[in-house]
Amino acid sequence: MVLFLTILSFIHLLYLLYIIINFLDSKRHQKCYLLDYQLYKPSDDRKLSTEFCGEVIKRAKNLGLNEYKFLLKAIVSSGIGEETYAPRMVFEGREENPTYQDAIIEMEELFEYTIGRLLRRTGISPLEIDVLVVNISMLACMPSLSSRIVNRYKMREDIKTYNLCGMGCSASLVSLNVVESIFKSKKNQLAMVVTSESLTPNWYIGNDRSMILSNCLFRSGGCAMILTNKPSLAQKCMLRLNCLVRTHHGAKDEAYGCCIQTEDEQGRVGFHLGKNLPKSATRAFVDNLKVLAPKILPIRELLRFSILSVTLKMLQNSQKKSSGSPRPMINFKTGVDHFCLHTGGKAVIDTVAQSLGLSEYDVEPARMTLHRFGNTSASSVWYVLGYMEAKKRLKKGDKLFMISFGAGFKCNSCLWEVVRDLEGVENVWKECKIEDYPPQTIINPFMEKYGWIQDEDINTFKIPE
Question: What ranges do the domains of the chain cover?
């Protein structure tokens, strides 16, 4: 009997040990790593110079003097330089009459540049990819873009594909969340994410100011990346995803309608950017940080902020001070080393920087990305990451905060941890002579050529020849 009980206890112990090992192993496989990524750099013949931008605006048939002046003023204050890229049909003068094939060619050029180079550099075969997620918000085709990639690179029959449309500038973090969720239920996976935007079929040809603005803000760009949860590849990876938070204010009509594809009064389709966009973005940003902050900041910082907030509220109640008194700010730098901000525009970068109390050093990558590549929609945060990598800022153990905004209205953010020192190998920023960034003085060519119109009386304003 004693021997039987001993054997039984031993079996129970082995079973408990098996459960513990299995639990730890499953946790180990649930981690999401960024193995490598490849940014898209179009050819130099697609760069938008100051003069060419003026020509594109002048040949728009439906613009009056007011709209012409408005667009030039928008470009002047956008923070965008002269080396950003546009689709080929713009340089061919066909932006008002693009074809379906133009849109497909735009995507195929992106796929060939990013996916092809990424696979060659990592040595991973297309047959090894288990999951493929493609997010191109403003182009839906049949077969889907994900199917086109599967066909082009002859991927496996059992590959799991996801094709995301309409997710806006925050789509790449939505794609990350899809991959992260799959990794929690499947071991030893390799996932590819392709993120970009289709500008070709979405050029607005009307004169509604809230819609023509998108023509001068968005630029060509994209990124392909490979993610994995294989423990055997952990040391070869670049980043590990620690947490990801998604905030969606689509239930609020004001937020839902501030950034939307619609028709103008003449029935011409365009992308409307409403005046209440900054307000909606701020609300989504605040709600997102409320969830994210406890996940990424040390307890001492959370306690400091809580004590200051309660103390200030008590003082206001006792002294009957106005609610407009300065509020204490959370110091995100206590839990974050680098900030990867969405390059939605100069105002977006300034607002986020002010809200988080960031220095010029912190926002330099975002400002330089906006200046060099413009707003490339969902891929913009990856160009910011590429700048940091090329500048050799990212060291093992550093924490990287990534945040983006998108139609819906959405605010998505995540925290990465650097797995190894990153030195920007095969980075498009190196081709841009990263040593020249940031320039001592950023020359705004649009300001030099068109800045004078800001004070010009519209009654005497004439389109320059």
Answer: 31-316+323-455
Residues 230-279: tens digit of each pLDDT: 999 999 999 999 999 999 999 999 999 999 999 988 888 888 888 888 88
Residues 6+ apart with CB under 8 A from 295: 242, 243, 245, 415
The domain 31-316+323-455 belongs to what CATH superfamily?
Thiolase/Chalcone synthase (3.40.47.10)
pTM for the full model?
0.89
Nearest Cα neighbor of 53 from 217, 246, 192 is 217
Strand 160-164 to 131-136 pairing: parallel
Catalytic residues: 169, 248, 338, 342, 371, 375
For 358, which DSSP code?
-
58 or 95, which is more confident: 95
Task: With a cut of 70, say whether residue 26 has pLDDT above it.
Answer: no
Grouping H, G, I as helix, E, B as strand and the rest as coil, residue 364 is: helix
The answer to whether 400 and 382 have CB atoms below 8 angstroms apart is no
255 touches 249 (CB < 8 A): yes
Distance CA 263, CA 260 (A): 10
165-202 tens-digit pLDDT: 989 899 999 999 999 999 999 999 999 999 999 999 99
